Here is the input.
Amino acid sequence: MNSSNDFQGKAVIISAPSGAGKTTLVNKLLKAKLPLLFSISACSRAPREGEEDKKDYYFLSVEEFKEKIKVQDFIEWEEVYQGNFYGTLKKEIERIWKEKKHVVFDVDVIGGISLKEYFKENSISIFIKPPSMEVLSKRLKKRKTDNRESIKNRLEKSFEEMKSIDKFDKIIVNDELNISTKNIIETVEEFLK
Ligand code: ADP
Ligand code: 5GP
Here is the structure.
């Protein structure tokens, strides 16, 4: 999928249990002066307040999503939460590499492992670890984007996801935000060298 003779597009894969802070850290990373672009995933959940189609996600109906699965438009896809599908579009990577930028993924833990298997040494997979499950629970509540049931589901899933931490190239504990921001930027800078 390399788009030119002298540019080797790479992939930066960021995964974490929901609420650990990966969106926050991905946004910090994208603001650093590095040649990176965010891979906009497709998803079938409804947009949250402030989210925009084609910027945060390609928002699709379940039917549209399933059609794309059928025609093999995805590198990976998953029903991350019951009834909510998320997936990485092949075309999105082509678009980013054509612009001579490296691609950044914000995906769940299983998606991160799949993408690492797909991009291999051309990628770095980073696991954002919450300081503790108590802090994770507090952050989800404070974010106010999920109801009780959804927070419960996300926390249950987190316990499972923590078991896969060793499959990642690098672990960053997101405790003090300034420190984890510096850590993620330095890690990615080093990988892109
Ligand atoms: P994720 O994308 O992993 O689900 P978010 O980036 O949405 O997580 O972060 C979850 C909540 O925690 C948000 O309200 C965010 O502002 C907050 N948060 C993120 N990182 C930190 C941190 N290091 N310290 C305190 N709060 C944080
Ligand atoms: P949210 O609903 O909070 O935006 O995202 C829910 C979860 O889906 C997060 O862990 C997010 O990283 C993950 N996710 C977003 N896009 C993709 C994707 O393309 N593939 C996979 N496997 N997970 C994704």
About this structure: The mean pLDDT is 94. The chain has one domain: 11-192.
